Amino acid sequence: MFEFGWPLIFLLLPLPWLVRRFAPPAQNRPAALQVAFMSRLQAVQPEPAEPGVRRTPWVFLLIWLLLLSAAARPQLLGDPLPMEVTGRDMMLAIDLSGSMEFRDMQFDGDEVDRLSLVKQVVGQFIDRRHGDRMGLILFGSQAFVQAPLTHDRNSVRKWLDEAFIGLAGRQTAIGDAIGLAIKRLEQQPAERRVLLLITDGANNAGRISAVQAARLAAERQIRIFTIGIGAETQQPPANTSAWLTPERDPSVELDEGTLKEIALLTGGEYFRARDSESFEAINQQLDRLEPALHEGRTQRQSLPLYPWPLGIALLLSMALTGWYRRSNVA
Questions:
Q1: What is the domain range of residue 181?
Q2: Are 82 and 298 in contact (CB under 8 A)?
Q3: Is-contact 131 84, C-beta < 8 A?
Q4: Which of 20, 34, 128, 236 could in theory staple to 243 by disulfide, Cβ–Cβ 3.0 to 4.6 A?
């Protein structure tokens, strides 16, 4: 099916006539060169123009019409194609504090740091969210938006892969990350607002506490799903009490109580990621809680046709220029 994408462009059709009709005439400037035989030159009668020269305005009108046709985006529309969409707007808030470099995670049999595991598993989660708009917040001592809400999931994953520990400082401003997500989500419809918060520590930086920020999110109907990162606490050896250190207790800084309260206040859920298997199980559960596909719409493939009228207008302009030059030489 043929159609013009911007048909209102044709309202400019009378523009050349309006300019000619209402624009002030050009000012005649005095001659810059004075010659002694000017009176004799003025007495010479100009030769009448060739009849064909006065019959060319239609060519200019045709060129103008072709230019407008190109600007109106002519296109051929193909058959309707189903497009899976969802109205879900999901922000991801990823912790980049210093403790995320702790190597207590296992991925494919190798020992990796927490951030590396998050990149792998959350990256796969992003790839599965067909039709969702995803955004990315990175936080440490401060929080900032690395990617606004977008359907371009490949770019969101790329920006996540390029993140590194300490990029936003080495502390943990959970409250600021939630507050920043509120600013990005509060303008969206209430049923679409979701924040996935991933951290391995406790709120120890920022201008607002995590619980206060969660209450604000609850007022704006933003659901927050929290994921706490950290391996299981090891059992203490016999006859010693000096075992509660990061080496023996990798999750000593994880504030599970606050993360559970954040999820409870906002109608979300709290999950604990102890390794790659439990993290993947969390992703599958999130897919069930927040389904990625819930409605469909159609989209048509389009073939742009603007080069044709644009090319014809160019050829006519070149032919008209050459014809005028030959007429003047003759």
A1: 84-233+241-296
A2: yes
A3: yes
A4: 236
pLDDT in tens, 17-32: 888 888 887 676 655 5
Q: Is residue 326 part of a domain?
A: no
Residue bearing tokens 């207590």: 104
DSSP H or E stretch at residue 143: strand 143-150
Which residues does residue 270 pair with via DSSP β-bridges, in sequence order? Answer: 226
Burial of 330 per CB tally in 10 Å (0-12, 13-18, 19+): exposed
Residue 35 resides in a domain: no
Whether residue 268 lies inside any domain: the answer is yes
Phi then psi for residue 114, to 5 deg, are -65, -40
pLDDT surpasses 60 at 298? no
Beta bridge partners, 217, equal: none
- CATH value at residue 122: 3.40.50.410
Number of separate domains in the chain: 1
Please state, in angstroms and as integers, the Cα–Cα distance from residue 274 to each residue in 163, 248, 286, following that order: 21, 14, 16
User: What's the pTM?
Assistant: 0.59
Counting residues of the chain whose pLDDT is more than 70, the rounded percentage is 77
